[in-house]
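Good morning,

Attaching, inline, the backbone tokens for the sequence recovery test we're adding to the shared suite. The designed sequence is right after.
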């Protein structure tokens, strides 16, 4: 049997009121809804090109419109470094500070979703896909449809890059 001191509530627990379960459930429901809404805003198109060629086509299309690639994250390489394997999977992080900065000034939390990202992935059967989040998903940060409308052109650019 444990000594009485070990069965006592920690000092911090005595000072912090417990949140009602209903409040916690409401918070969790909001997080689930936000995640589900974000997932609903994903667009995936199949690329007719091999993985490396798809990356090149997307990079070229972005550069042709003056969009800067800020980072290229090779998840498969990171997995290899960790002693694991996964199919080729790369995320391109891109944008234009002249377009993104005004949006972040209007709603600072939009910086969580800017710069924009595109995922190029090859599955186990060799099928290559390109995935991105629809621009109107940024309205979840409180931006208006008019504010994010110019980003719709990026969606068309991504899709056309693999046709």
């Amino acid at each position: 049997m444990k000594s009485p001191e070990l069965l006592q509530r920690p000092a911090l627990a005595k000072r912090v009121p417990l949140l009602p379960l209903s409040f916690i459930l409401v918070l969790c429901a909001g997080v689930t809804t936000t995640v589900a809404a974000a997932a609903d805003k994903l667009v995936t198109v199949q690329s007719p090109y091999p993985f490396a060629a798809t990356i090149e086509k997307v990079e070229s299309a972005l550069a042709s419109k003056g969009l800067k690639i800020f980072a290229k994250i090779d998840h498969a390489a990171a997995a290899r470094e960790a002693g694991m394997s996964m199919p080729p999977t790369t995320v391109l992080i891109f944008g234009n500070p002249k377009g993104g900065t005004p949006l972040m000034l209007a709603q600072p939390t939009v910086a969580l979703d800017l710069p924009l990202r595109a995922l190029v992935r090859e599955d186990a059967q060799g099928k290559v896909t390109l995935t991105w989040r629809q621009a109107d998903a940024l309205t979840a940060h409180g931006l208006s449809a008019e504010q994010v409308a110019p980003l719709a052109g990026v969606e068309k650019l991504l899709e056309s890059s693999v046709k």
